[in-house]
Design the sequence.
């Protein structure tokens, strides 16, 4: 629900990769992710009933944060707001997708809309305004939590819940692609160039002094065959 669609099986595993799930192309989780934003907004204008179910079930709101997804939908769809906070609360959204895949009775995509709003705010450098508001969990927090088993059945992934296989003797890769940005902060800067020989565990990229970032280490021993602003490619020697 919170992951991203991979455009290709050649995409590298990153530090932030928690797991990979292979689903049929027609699976609801896949279909909803591919719906164009223009369609999503049209659906919201014509079908959103302002029932506020998305807000009542929002896990972040139940923890006490001032986020109201239905107001963001109202603002984006109809241009109606009750103040700046009604829209900037999108910055508090964890994009868990509960409103989108489980709660909305009209099968709209609040997470998708809020994600686009949040991305636009971030591009423009807009931050959530500071407030002295006390954060108190909703008194009905426990009663409004969604059972994991029910959620799993609703989104159609219950059949995939099993103990994962353990690869005891996995074949080492011949070629690896090390992304320079796979962490919070600034991308790492390459310390190697094409043709260099590296050892497994050697630092091949690191952030500039003063930058928030993380070092990138070689996962295999071999030769550097490509270096650019996106990734470093190593070939086993």
Sequence:
């Amino acid at each position: 629900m919170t992951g991203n669609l991979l455009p290709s099986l050649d995409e590298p595993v990153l530090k932030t990769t928690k797991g990979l799930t292979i689903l049929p192309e027609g699976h609801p989780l896949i279909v909803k992710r591919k719906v164009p934003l223009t369609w999503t907004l049209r659906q919201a204008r014509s079908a959103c009933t302002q029932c506020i179910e998305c807000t009542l079930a929002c896990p972040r709101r139940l923890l006490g944060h001032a986020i109201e997804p239905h107001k963001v939908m109202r603002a984006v769809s109809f241009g109606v707001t009750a103040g700046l906070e009604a829209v900037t609360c999108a910055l508090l959204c964890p994009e868990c997708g509960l409103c989108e895949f489980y709660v909305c009775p009209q099968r709209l995509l609040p997470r998708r809309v809020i994600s686009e709003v949040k991305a636009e705010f971030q591009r423009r450098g807009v931050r959530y305004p500071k407030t002295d508001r006390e954060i108190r969990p909703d008194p009905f927090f426990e009663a409004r939590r969604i059972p994991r088993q029910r959620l799993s059945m609703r989104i159609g992934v219950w059949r995939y819940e099993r103990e994962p296989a353990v690869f005891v003797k996995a074949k080492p890769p011949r070629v690896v692609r090390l992304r320079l940005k796979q962490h919070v902060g600034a991308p790492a800067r390459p310390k190697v160039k094409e043709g260099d020989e590296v050892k497994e565990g050697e630092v091949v990229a690191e952030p500039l002094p003063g930058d928030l970032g993380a070092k990138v280490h070689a996962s295999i021993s071999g030769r550097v065959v490509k270096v650019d602003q996106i990734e470093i490619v190593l070939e086993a020697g």
Remarks:
- The beta strands are 175-179, 189-190, 197-198, 203-206, 216-217, 222-227, 231-236.
